[in-house]
Amino acid sequence: MEQEKRDQESVEKFDIKLKSRPRDGVILQLHHTVRGSNGESRRIRFSVGTFDDNQDKLACSDNAGNLFILDFSDLKFWKLIGIGQCTALHFVPNKLDTLVIANAKRFDVSFLDTENGQVSLSLPGHTAPIKHISFSNNKINNLLTASPVEAILWELTNYTKYFTLNTYLGAQIQQIMFMPGGDYLVACFQNDTVQIWKHESMKSVKQIIPSELKHMRSIAFTMNGRAMAMAGLTPMLILFSMDTWKALKSIDMSKYNISGIQQIAFIPQVFDGGANKILAILSSDCTLYLFDLESVSVIHTISPESSGIRRFVVSPSGKYFLCILQLGEVNIYNSAHVLDMAQSAIGDSVKDEVPSTSTQKPVPHNLSPSKVEVEQKMRSCMDSARLRRILMQYGEYPDKFRSVIWRSLLNTPQNKIAYAALVDKGIHPTYRGIEKQFTIHSSVTLKNLKRLLSCLAHWCPLFGVMKFLPGFVFPFVKVLQKDPLLLFECVATILLNYCQLWFEYAPFPPISILAMAENILAEHDQQLLNHFCEAGITSQTYALKILETAFSEVLTCTEWLILWDHILSNEPAFILMAVVSYNIVQKNALKRLTTHEQLDNFFHMQNPIDKKLFLKKAYVLLNDTCEDIHPRRFFNSFVSLEKGDCYQQFTGYPKATICLKLAKKERKKENKSDKYTLRDLTRKSQEKIINEREKNEDSDSKAMQSDNDTSEEFITEKYEKKSRRKSKESSPNRRGLCTKEFLDNVMYPASVTMERSKQHGDSRSSKKDKDSNIGKRSSKSKNKKKTTDRKNDTLEKEVEKLIRTCTNSDVTDT
């Protein structure tokens, strides 16, 4: 047993070589052949496989219980033995080198380290072989495993069963999975029924029973989760819209010589926006068809000569797909190569159909760039300088590639593990009732907004108290909600760079930012600034209102997208120039408004604007503003989020709050030192009084003096207790007064000084009255004590000595 563990820990890795330009699209072929004792070779069949696009890996299992791991990035492969026969495989999202395997004999799922083959955890509970494994996209800790007779939803934080679905004979599970968005759970049953549940509550949402489709075998979703395809043994393909819950189209597959369908899956393509149009169809005759849903045509057919296809697996990003043949071999295809062959075949067929004339010149095929070359060129062009040149030429980025371009401009790290840690913290208490503040009809948008705000508040507690934040991030949620990770990292990067100095005086307005905007407006349009001053309008109205809503209240959706294309393509100072530009371009409309209410409403509604003039003026302000008041003088250069297991700390905390905390700490220290000095002096004075009296008193005066001592000690102890009680009662009040004085000095310095001078005057007058009363009492006591003896004279001398010693000790203590 120990020898097996050592063998597993020291796994030997071997090199693999991929075909660069395969003729048939197969970049690699797997087969496991062993030689028996009699010298005959025997081939072991592969049964299941799965891809991990994040690590560029592939895992395949054969019927003998061997697990093969292929690393396409390092071009290595290795074998893990003794795993046992597997019925399903799935890589764990956001965890390196962790694979979930379903055992064929024990009916459990195990978590396996692909580097050394060690099993860290097993989850029993199924009564039949597990066929399906699926992870939720929005809740990474939710795992779904299913056999034909039951499905179990696991909570991986404590490894417990969250929900169990049991079936009955005749309605067993054909296929079950999470939707790409993770909001719904969808199952296909043998009785030709598709059932949809809400993920969080597991309540049934929809039941689909297609009348045209019989013997349903497979369902598939596009990457954006907006469309679902259903197919079965009857030659019928149905496309269903998940937005409207209605069928989009029904396609008769018998027209394409497809008598029945065993399995379907979408093949995602680069820059298709998640709306995949290529559907892979495995027919009943073990042939794989690539079907274009836009042109409703078969663009390519895969039918290996050696054997038919038993099943196929497509990688999550569509980069690769594999076919497990009936003889047990595995063919791994590069999707781009296969689609290139399909397009070239279509082009050749079109050329053959078009008759050649003397005026037509044949175009060489090698002059048209392939899709792979186009993608490589696009990646090389994804730098800010080239993108900015494109933006200057066309004025905006294309809608289809906007999210990809924004990701490139902001250089988001795609920290899936760090983002998952923020999501796992749950909804922040501040934003649990956000729906009461905003009217959001879409439950999906509301959920994405809550998740984004909660992640921001968990990342930085300051974002949990800023009231304007929901309105600021809402337009970004509407645009990027299909990719929650990109949404969070984009908003976090914007807050980190384009919102510099916004939180310097939080929760008060950003004085520095508003002063910059006012200075820019004063330099370029003094008349408009004078109009604002005459109407009593400050920069909190004509600048802060626009900034806090990220221009979403004053611009239409198209104008907003175009503006943020330019903001993200320029330095952080551009956003302030856009604010001033909006005011200057709307100058004629603003001058006709005279009241404060009219001007305030103007910045809360969409007003017609010439977007080209608006952007042109913003660039003029960016280039022609003098350096003394230019915002770039006060802003830091662009800083992207760091790549790793956690995000860097947000450091734009309000300075006033930090100063207030420091002031409180200093006052606490001063109060503690004052208490100590007073207590120490009191103790020293009592000890010296007792010691001097015991030394200088003779035996005759001890009896008389003892009464006086006891009375004086009683008075001293009573005074000490009273002073302690007063100091305890006054300490929290003093701290509260110190905090109040500090805030008053910040907010109302002039009024505080006047009030304080009055209080000092009143206290001085009251002090004089007290001194006069004390003087009257002392004169009365002198009249009563005219008969004093020599012993009292010696006592007064000792008191004078005591006062001198106490003053000296006080000086040394301080």
Topology (SSEs and partners):
Elements: H1 2-9, E1 14-15, E2 26-30, E3 32-35, E4 41-44, E5 46-52, E6 57-62, E7 67-71, E8 76-80, E9 86-91, E10 98-103, E11 109-113, E12 119-123, E13 132-135, E14 142-146, E15 150-155, E16 160-166, E17 173-178, E18 184-189, E19 194-198, E20 204-208, E21 216-221, E22 227-232, E23 236-241, E24 246-252, E25 261-266, E26 278-283, E27 288-292, E28 297-302, E29 309-314, E30 320-325, E31 330-334, H2 335-353, H3 371-380, H4 384-394, H5 402-410, H6 416-424, H7 443-459, H8 469-480, H9 484-497, H10 511-524, H11 526-534, H12 539-548, H13 557-568, H14 574-585, H15 587-591, H16 596-602, H17 611-624, H18 655-696, H19 699-747, H20 749-784, H21 790-813
Helix pairs in contact: 5-9, 7-8, 7-9, 8-9, 10-11, 10-12, 10-14, 12-14, 14-17, 18-19, 18-21, 19-20
Please give a structural write-up.
Its main location: cytoplasm. Residues 805-814 have a biased composition (Polar residues). Residues 671-740, 754-814 are annotated as: Disordered. With 814 residues, this protein is of the alpha+beta class. Among the domains are: 1-124, 7 Propeller (Methylamine Dehydrogenase, Chain H); 416-633, Cyclin A, domain 1 (Orthogonal Bundle), CATH 1.10.472.80; 654-694 and 729-750 and 795-814, no CATH class. Helices cover 42% and strands 21% of the residues. A hairpin with a 5-residue loop joins strand 29 and strand 30. Helix 10 (511-524) packs across helix 11 (526-534). The longest helix has 49 residues, at 699-747. 29% of the residues are buried. Residues 1-8, 350-368, 705-719, 725-739, 742-758, 760-788 and 806-814 have low confidence and may be disordered.
